[in-house]
Design a protein that fits this description.
InterPro entries: Amidase_dom, AS_sf. It comes from Acidaminobacter hydrogenoformans DSM 2784. Pfam families: Amidase. One of its GO terms (molecular function) is transferase activity. This is Asp-tRNAAsn/Glu-tRNAGln amidotransferase A subunit. Helices cover 38% and strands 13% of the residues. The chain has a single domain, classed as Amidase signature (AS) enzymes. The chain is of the alpha/beta class and 489 residues long. The longest helix has 23 residues. The two termini are 24 Å apart. It is built from 17 helices and 13 strands.
Length: 489
């Protein structure tokens, strides 16, 4: 049997090698993760529902393995799925009591692709209800806690996925990202979170927030596992026309860019306007100072960006003046509700508000969204600002000879439970559609509630369709630093 120490923090590669040696079956793997959920989720409150068919699916994969070996690149690998991705075999709640008993007719694109690659959907995870903010609290499950510090949030909105992957409830996590929501829990939970170029992964079968900005991406413990998951998810989906833009941009496999020397020769712009300047920002700034040194030690050339466009970029203003997430919510979530037909009695945002079947913490956002209009001049102005920002960033990177930009994902440590997530920088990738990745950068000083410190994530952002560059740099940084540590549970 597989050694227990090898099982903990295991990667896709570790597990597949153990299967080939006859030390591990898919059924055994699923049972081990279910046992961890049973043992530890009472502390974290991350799992909305375990897939009742997971063990049955694992046994079927074992039978197939006995006949012909691995059935796909993710054979038997347990997946933690954010509960806003449609599954035909269990409800999709989006964290809301309004959808608590709603089981969609079809699996979403992501589920189909994961299962085609051999993966097992193990559980559906908590999220900030309807993915509208960043603390991961919902009317279905309540507040999820950060496994590194049980007094803090796990980031969000994909915080249930992040907490679960950090705590070894599964191997692969799936989140969605409208503003920060894949990268925020990655930063808060010492994980890798990849937001791909808009259009690289289909959004069909995801409860939408803002189809102008929505995407999905992997949340994993290693860059390699994130990349293997990305390979399984990309491709053209007729149900999401935006994916047509990805045709011609897909390599045979993104794993070809897992290069230990991937930082060598990279020119990386340090976006200083995305660093905080107050005392509350000092723990993150200390970690980032060491991370920047590690980038240089790995062979990168750093360029401080302190003037021109770079000096004007302000993540708070991008949220309040450029992002269209709240403008789109009424149209896009309403369209999803309408598509559910007689499964729900409310087919628009106003009817959902009237039902009262949601966490009171999102009421203000829902009411604001209900008052906004995608036909308005203000909405069109924001779209123009997004277009201009895309062009300005491309010009900045071209003129300065930059391959990537770097900054802390969050200027301050992830907030305590009861606080509102602030000072996050993921909006730059969200409003431009440019790809970005968060990797573990280090920890704050240990405290009584955070025995090894609170994780801090570093974000790298690149040009559209240049996931290859992000992968090279982030993998090399990971290999150079080996920062990932499991939480003390």
């Amino acid at each position: 049997m597989m050694n227990e120490k090898v099982f903990l923090e295991a990667t896709i590669g570790n597990l597949h090698e153990a299967m080939k040696r006859g030390e591990l079956t898919c059924a055994d793997l699923v049972q081990r993760y279910l046992a961890r959920i049973e043992r530890y989720d009472q502390q974290l409150n991350a799992v909305i529902r375990v897939n009742p068919y997971a063990l049955e699916q694992a046994r079927a994969l074992d039978e197939a393995f006995g006949r012909s070996g691995l059935t796909g690149p993710l054979h038997g690998i347990p997946v933690l799925l954010k509960d806003n991705v449609d599954t035909s075999f269990m409800p999709t709640t989006a964290g809301s009591s309004a959808l608590a008993q709603v089981t969609p007719d079809e699996d979403g694109w992501i589920v189909k692709r994961l299962q085609a690659a051999g993966a097992v959907i193990l559980a559906k995870m908590n999220l900030h209800e309807f993915a509208v903010w960043g603390e991961t609290v919902s009317s279905v499950l309540g507040q999820t806690l950060n496994p590194y510090d049980l007094t803090r949030t796990p980031g969000g909105s994909s915080g249930g996925t992040g907490a679960g992957i950090a705590a070894d409830f599964g191997v692969i996590g799936i989140g969605t990202d409208t503003v920060n929501s894949v990268r925020s829990p990655a930063s808060a939970c010492c994980l890798v979170g990849l937001r791909p170029t808009l259009g690289l992964i289909s959004r069909s079968g995801i409860v939408p927030y803002s189809l102008t900005q929505d995407t999905a991406g992997p949340i994993t413990r290693t860059v390699e596992d994130a990349v293997k998951t990305l390979d399984a998810l990309v491709g053209y989906d007729p149900l999401d026309p935006l994916t047509a833009w990805s045709v011609g941009h897909l390599p045979e496999t993104y794993t070809a860019f897992l290069k230990p020397d991937g930082l060598t020769g990279k020119n990386i712009g340090v976006l200083r306007s995305f660093f905080g300047k107050d005392a509350v920002h000092e723990p993150v700034n200390r970690v980032m100072a060491q991370a920047l040194k590690a980038l240089e030690a790995g062979g990168a050339q750093l360029v401080d960006l302190t003037d021109g466009l770079a000096a004007q970029l302000d993540s708070g203003r991008l949220i309040s003046e450029v992002s269209v997430h709240l403008y789109d919510l009424k149209r896009d979530l309403g369209g999803y509700l309408e598509s559910l037909g007689d499964k729900v009695p409310y087919h628009c945002l106003e009817a959902l508000l009237a039902s009262g079947l949601y966490h009171p913490g999102i009421e203000e956002n829902l009411k604001t969204a209900a008052s906004l209009d995608t036909d308005s001049e203000a909405y069109q102005q924001r779209l123009l600002l997004q277009k201009q920002l895309r062009e300005d960033l491309m010009v900045l990177m071209a003129e300065r000879g930059l391959d990537l930009l770097v900054f802390p994902h969050q200027k301050r440590l992830v907030v305590p439970v009861g606080g509102s997530q602030v000072d996050r920088n993921g909006v730059l990738g969200a409003v431009t559609g440019f790809p970005s990745i968060v990797v573990p950068a280090g920890f704050s000083e240990p405290t009584e509630t955070a025995p090894i410190g609170v994780p801090v994530g570093m974000e790298l952002l690149g040009r559209p369709w240049c996931e290859s560059v992000l992968i090279e740099a982030s993998y090399a940084f990971e290999q150079e630093t080996r920062i990932r540590k499991p939480p003390v549970l």
